Amino acid sequence: MKKLLFLLLISLSTACQNNPKTMEVPNESFDIQGHRGCRGLLPENTIPAFLKAIDIGVNTLELDVVVSKDKQLVVSHEPYLSPTICKGLEGEDFDNEKKYNLYQMTYEEISRCDCGSKGNPRFPEQEKMKVSKPLLAEVIDTVEKYLKDKNLSPVKYNIETKSQPETDNIAHPAPAEFANLLYELVKQKGMLERTTIQSFDIRTLQEVKKVDEKISLALLVAEKPYFEQNIKELGFKPAIYSPYYILVTDTLVDYCRKEQIKLIPWTINDYETMLKLKKQGVDGIITDYPDRAMKLLEK
Questions:
Q1: 54, 66, 146, 292: which has the highest count of C-beta atoms within 10 A?
Q2: pLDDT value at position 28?
Q3: What percent of the chain has pLDDT over 90?
Q4: Which phi and psi angles does 109 have, rounded to 5°?
Q5: Per-residue model confidence as pLDDT tens digits over 187-200
Q6: What is the mean pLDDT of residues 233-250?
Q7: Which among 178, 271, 263 is positioned nearest to 227, based on CA atoms?
């Protein structure tokens, strides 16, 4: 009997070692999110960055969306072309961030603009390459095919709506339209169960909540340490609370545990701070360098 049990354990161990999918399953208990893909390594919010983040082993792809003139959801952190990382329609450098408002451009125009060759002075390790801002639909399709072709475990999507009251109908649609455009695309792609919608703009989250009570929502917070008041203003308990990492305190960790809210701060890029926050009890981190964060999962 002992010999039979020993052989069974050996067989199970060998099977796990030889099954690529088993080895690729990320640590579900700690959520490592690749910020804008892996901004520290490849141009932000681009397909190469998302695929690289998957190869590194992230659980979640964190990204931002804006809306084009022809109502396409475009993956971009700003609702304009950033002169720091992008070239213009004619391949020119420019210094006025108001020159190219993406909400006033068709996606065909946006796709002609290079947002990777210049690199990013804040991230000297970032590889330069000619690449444009993709559609959200294109990102999902490409990622899902990549996962299938490589027999990898599914990843989650954490999608931020870039909006604020001052620029409604100037740089983006009003909250209800923005929320519906995003929700319908995610639903069409069959990704509702694997998607979180996040925002600093509570109006967007409130609008998504009206459409779907069950979808995961995350409240982003930059400067307000009063977490109970922040959630009160939101009007409901979000699935995830995502503050700037310096706002994380033991009191906040205890509150989120008590309320069963996941606590996932942004954006942490040095390993010592990552480790400190993990030991403090956060549920995950958002980072520009997921390669550094993967060390957190080493036993």
A1: 66
A2: 58
A3: 89
A4: -70, -45
A5: 999 999 999 999 99
A6: 98
A7: 263
Q: Where are the beta strands (DSSP E) in the chain?
A: 31-35, 60-67, 73-75, 156-161, 195-199, 216-221, 240-243, 262-263, 284-287
Q: What whole-number distance in Å separates Cα of residue 250 and Cα of residue 202?
A: 25
Is the CA virtual torsion 37, 39, 42, 43 positive or negative? positive
**Buried-state track 148-168, b at ≥16 Cβ within 10 A, e below 16:** eeeebeebbbbbbbbbeeeeb
> Residue 90's closest CA among 66, 74, 114, 72?
114
From the centroid of its chain, how far is CA 150?
21
β-sheet bridge partners, residue 159 = 63, 197
Distance in Å from the first CA to the final CA of the chain? 32
HSE at residue 252, side-chain half, CA atoms within 13 A, is 26
Hey, how many other C-beta atoms are within 10 angstroms of the C-beta on 45?
27
Domains observed in the chain: 29-79+136-297 (3.20.20.190)
- How far apart CA 76 and CA 58 sit, in angstroms, is 20
Give per-residue pLDDT as tens, 148-188: 999 999 999 999 999 999 999 999 999 999 999 999 999 99
Residue type, 198: Q
Global pTM value: 0.90
Token readout for 132 is 């444009």
Selection from 206, 208, 189 nearest residue 135 by Cα = 189
